[in-house]
Automatic annotation (TrEMBL):
<protein>
    <recommendedName>
        <fullName>Glutaredoxin</fullName>
    </recommendedName>
</protein>
<keyword id="KW-0963">Cytoplasm</keyword>
<dbReference type="InterPro" id="IPR036249">
    <property type="entry name" value="Thioredoxin-like_sf"/>
</dbReference>
<keyword id="KW-1015">Disulfide bond</keyword>
<feature type="domain" description="Glutaredoxin">
    <location>
        <begin position="4"/>
        <end position="64"/>
    </location>
</feature>
<dbReference type="GO" id="GO:0045454">
    <property type="term" value="P:cell redox homeostasis"/>
</dbReference>
<dbReference type="Pfam" id="PF00462">
    <property type="entry name" value="Glutaredoxin"/>
</dbReference>
<comment type="similarity">
    <text>Belongs to the glutaredoxin family.</text>
</comment>
<dbReference type="GO" id="GO:0015038">
    <property type="term" value="F:glutathione disulfide oxidoreductase activity"/>
</dbReference>
<comment type="function">
    <text>Has a glutathione-disulfide oxidoreductase activity in the presence of NADPH and glutathione reductase. Reduces low molecular weight disulfides and proteins.</text>
</comment>
<dbReference type="InterPro" id="IPR002109">
    <property type="entry name" value="Glutaredoxin"/>
</dbReference>
<keyword id="KW-0813">Transport</keyword>
<keyword id="KW-0676">Redox-active center</keyword>
<dbReference type="GO" id="GO:0005737">
    <property type="term" value="C:cytoplasm"/>
</dbReference>
<dbReference type="InterPro" id="IPR011767">
    <property type="entry name" value="GLR_AS"/>
</dbReference>
<dbReference type="GO" id="GO:0034599">
    <property type="term" value="P:cellular response to oxidative stress"/>
</dbReference>
<keyword id="KW-0249">Electron transport</keyword>
Length: 85
């Protein structure tokens, strides 16, 4: 399974939703709370091409986007293949 990186903030319902979906897949997630981590926030901005909303999700080197993007991959039946790569 590729490395999964999720940038989050506390009390973010979209972050919880994304993490819950990945959890149902048995994925191990590296979560970075950017609310108090300036370096983590800067890293997210760089990797996500300036997108500032959370969550920002990366599977391997692929930028997935946010929670809605992750859910769209699941609905399209593409998420399992990405996680298995």
């Amino acid at each position: 399974m590729p490395k999964i990186q999720v940038y989050t903030k506390p009390f973010c319902p979209y972050c919880y939703r994304a993490l819950a979906l990945l959890g149902t897949k048995g994925a191990t997630v590296v979560e970075t709370d950017i609310s108090m981590d300036r370096a983590g926030r800067d890293e997210m901005l760089s990797r996500a091409n300036g997108r500032t909303t959370v969550p920002q999700i990366f599977i391997g080197n692929r930028h997935i986007g946010g929670s809605d993007d992750l859910a769209a991959l699941e609905r399209a039946g593409e998420l399992d293949a990405l996680l298995a790569a």
